[in-house]
Amino acid sequence: MSKLEHHGTYTPTSGVGKWIDARMPLPRLMYDSFVAYPVPRNLNYAYTFGGILSIFLVIQIVTGIVLAMHYVPDATKAFDSVEHIMRDVNSGWLMRYMHQNGAHFFFLAVYLHIFRGLYYGSYKAPRELLWILGCIIYLLMMATAFMGYVLPWGQMSFWGATVITGFFTAFPVIGVPIQELLLGGFAVGDPTLNRFFSLHYLLPFMIAGVVILHVWALHVTGQTNPTGIEVKSKTDTVPFTPYATIKDAFALILFLALYAYFVFYMPNFLGHADNYIPADPMVTPAHIVPEWYFLPFYAILRAITFDIGPITAKLGGVIAMFSAVLVLFVVPWLDTSKVRSAVYRPWYKLAFWLFVINSVFLGWLGSQPAEGVYVALAQLSTAIYFGFFLIVMPVLGLVEKPRRLPNSITEAVLERSAKTGGGSPQLGDATASADKS
Amino acid sequence: MSDANSDDDWPPQIERRDFLFVSTGMMAAVGTAVAVWPFIDAMNPSADVQALATTEVDLEPIAAGQRITVIWRSQPVFIERRTPEQVAQAKADDDSPDLIDPATDASRVKSEEWLVVVGVCTHLGCVPLGQREGDERGEWGGWFCPCHGSHYDTSGRIRRGPAPRNLVVPPYELRDDGTVLIG
Amino acid sequence: MKNLVVKLGAAAIAATVMATGAWAASAYPKNKPREQDWSFAGPFGMYDQAQLQRGLKIYAENCSACHALSRVNFRNLADLGYSDEQIKAFAANYEVEDGPDDFGDMFFRPATAADAFPSPFPNKEAARAANGGAYPPDLSLIAKARAPIRGFPAFVIDPFRNYAENGPDYIYSLLTGYKDEVPEDVSVPEGLWYNPYFASGTALAMAPPLFEGMHEFDDGTEATVSNMAKDVAAFLMWTAEPHMDERKQLGFRVMVFLLIFAALLYLSKKQVWARVEH
């Protein structure tokens, strides 16, 4: 690992720079972390979502702060205040649509980020803590998104809050007191709205804090890469700036273009029409459906329709749903494979794609009514979901025969470019390049 | 191929394309700068606030010597139907050397009888006393700001104290039907 | 390996799209809304002011008897091309409650540009009582609040054709969709009107509100039920989304910027990576 050490190349030139460096070397930390920091040279675009996610956290926080300047967390005024933002506040509609669609794209990016980690085995030693910190961020995101969804106080907001806090009543004895504690009353109401607003404002900053830990852990172990082989020499890597920066920036702008398309041209496509009806505690909408990013878990919740011994179906569903998220935390220990990346694991690769398809399918089931054939399908799909983590991951690692691994990242890169007819034609040897410049 | 690279000359020099890099950088800078505006603009007064920027008041019921307070743009506006004595006093002081912000009484009213001023002290924004019976009116019989002791006269001019300017005359229009439209 | 990105992306988009769109196993509306041509459809579509003015007339003279429009202020009518004087005069036709006055009493005064459209009923209960138990909803947001689920596969295709008009399509279809002949398998409760386009049942309490020739339009538009339904649906889209024109105009500039920026970044990225096999 010693060859990895590009660190310490920061040399302040100005007097002010030296003065600061001697007292609090923040610029040095930034330089070492985001300029000189060596990243594997073979990272593909699946590795750009970390950067994209951090930008989306910023977008959500900044638009959120502006929205909070106009929003009123009061059951009688919340809906009106959101409409006031949409109609009368300068650029208010833009802030609101950016925030609302930003949540969707935040989750889209986080799912791609998680799937990338599962595909390339990013969670394996020595990156278990990095992975767990990521799981914590994901949990916090879910809590934040749920509470944020309640704030506009539309029909879906209100009934979503009712249903989700209702999960807790599944637990015997302590369930109802917990729900009342969460709601601040016997049903969703003004106290609920106020505390959700408070927490919705707080949690993003907690996410930002865990993100810093996540990045810290990342910079200790270094990135994984598509080969899953650790960095061995300096030529396996390139400095973060400009190589990764420019690639991340390009991917970010493409992702932002997709996001902007929805913000400006289809801002309500991902939302629910019912949430434009003010909350009415006396009338439940015909279909209560969570936002798409919760649908797979919603399907798992509803798949448990039978009692398991002393565990009622209701409690079983809640346990299954929470387990579906919590199982991610132990993935580093469930996967027994010595090889990291799915690229060299044909069977795991197949299992992975089936898992992805199954997750999408679960999402679709979550959007269907919980009756008839959908229940059986959801049960099957739920079994596959847990089977992937609890059976496939441990067993496959023991029985699968991985493909031959290259000796180094550099070798893998060159092998591949030789196979595909050699990358860029202007590539000369090092001397020639040096001459040119 | 690049495996000829040793650690020392890695990574290879990037061939400079200044025009490309500079224009990309400019795009980033301009984009960021422009994107900041909506966030700032969102803090400006919103359309509903702007829409309430005029206030109409019926002057009929106000007796001579009576002062009323109306709300315009969420701020108090003092309207006074001045007595001839008050007008005379205001005019007599037009050339007084103690005017901090010299202005003639005529330049501050549209009709001698009616004085319309924003009831906000030009020092630090307190509301001066003098609107209600029994209020302290200051040495010049106008208004007195209790925060830091500014005295205003019957034309709303600052005469003594820390305030730098006379009470502001809002844009208004006295209409034939006996109403005033402020704003 | 770059395939992974494409595959993951495709899977994720499919997930998003299927998941949100496809839950419509709902029985209503029985008939899907019929798609209409709207001036405001598509990325460059803008409101047609003349159409919105006709829609306003229909709302003001018919719908407003039962339906509130409480999130729209008279000043907003400037978007429809009216001058300040016209708006003032129009607002003055309405009485709004104000107060309390110096004696503590509420009083009525003519509305000003800053006021919202006054509601026909003081509260929900009064509205229900006057309408046989059915609450005529506030129409301000109705074009966004009644957007029937598109279902699969329309839902997947919609983003590609930029279809976002299911609200006004629904309103149009409902207003023109009353049927005198009720199919045998449908029972219509007494006092309700059969309409297969209705989102929450077979029949609704609102009688067919539009009749041929009930209005005369200054611009000579023929007052057919279809024309009027379309005009009022467009008007309600505007009341629900008054900043749509502004949104699409800004959107165009943002998209152009992002695409040029992306192209430049791509070229820069190629340049930076030119000598590094990856």
UniProtKB/TrEMBL annotation, chain A:
Q: Which residues bind a ubiquinone?
A: H219
Cofactor comment in the record? Binds 2 heme groups non-covalently.
Q: Which SUPFAM superfamilies match?
A: a domain/subunit of cytochrome bc1 complex (Ubiquinol-cytochrome c reductase), Transmembrane di-heme cytochromes
> In the UniProt record, which is one GO cellular component term?
respiratory chain complex III
Q: Where is this region: Disordered?
A: 417-437
Binding of heme b b566, residues: H113, H214
One of the GO BP terms on file = respiratory electron transport chain
Family label: Belongs to the cytochrome b family.
Relate the protein's function as given in its record.
Component of the ubiquinol-cytochrome c reductase complex (complex III or cytochrome b-c1 complex), which is a respiratory chain that generates an electrochemical potential coupled to ATP synthesis.
Q: What is this protein called?
A: Cytochrome b
**Which source organism does the UniProt entry give?**
Oceaniradius stylonematis
Per the UniProt record, the lineage of the source organism begins with: Bacteria, Pseudomonadati, Pseudomonadota, Alphaproteobacteria, Hyphomicrobiales
TrEMBL record, chain B:
Gene3D superfamilies in the record: Rieske [2Fe-2S] iron-sulphur domain, Single helix bin
Domain Rieske stretches = 84-181
Q: Which family does it belong to?
A: Belongs to the Rieske iron-sulfur protein family.
Described purpose of this protein according to its UniProt entry: Component of the ubiquinol-cytochrome c reductase complex (complex III or cytochrome b-c1 complex), which is a respiratory chain that generates an electrochemical potential coupled to ATP synthesis.
An additional note in the Swiss-Prot or TrEMBL entry is: The Rieske protein is a high potential 2Fe-2S protein.
- Its encoding gene is what? petA
Reaction catalyzed? a quinol + 2 Fe(III)-[cytochrome c](out) = a quinone + 2 Fe(II)-[cytochrome c](out) + 2 H(+)(out)
- The main place the protein resides is membrane
Q: Which cofactor does it need?
A: [2Fe-2S] cluster
Protein name, per record: Ubiquinol-cytochrome c reductase iron-sulfur subunit
From TrEMBL, chain C:
Read off the Gene3D superfamilies from this record. Answer: Cytochrome c-like domain, Cytochrome c1, transmembrane anchor, C-terminal
Do the record's keywords include ATP-binding?
Answer: no
Record's signal peptide: 1-24
Location in the cell reads: Membrane
Taxonomically, the superkingdom here is: Bacteria
GO cellular-component term (any): membrane
Q: What is its main location?
A: membrane
Name the Pfam families for this protein.
Cytochrom_C1
Q: Where are the transmembrane segments?
A: 250-268
Show the coiled coil region(s).
none
Q: Which SUPFAM superfamilies does this entry report, sorted A to Z?
A: Cytochrome c, Cytochrome c1 subunit of cytochrome bc1 complex (Ubiquinol-cytochrome c reductase), transmembrane anchor
Q: Which cofactor(s) are needed, names only?
A: heme c
What PANTHER family would the database entry show? CYTOCHROME C1, CYTOCHROME C1, HEME PROTEIN, MITOCHONDRIAL
Regarding protein family, the annotation reads: Belongs to the cytochrome c family.
**Can you say what this protein is called?**
Cytochrome c1
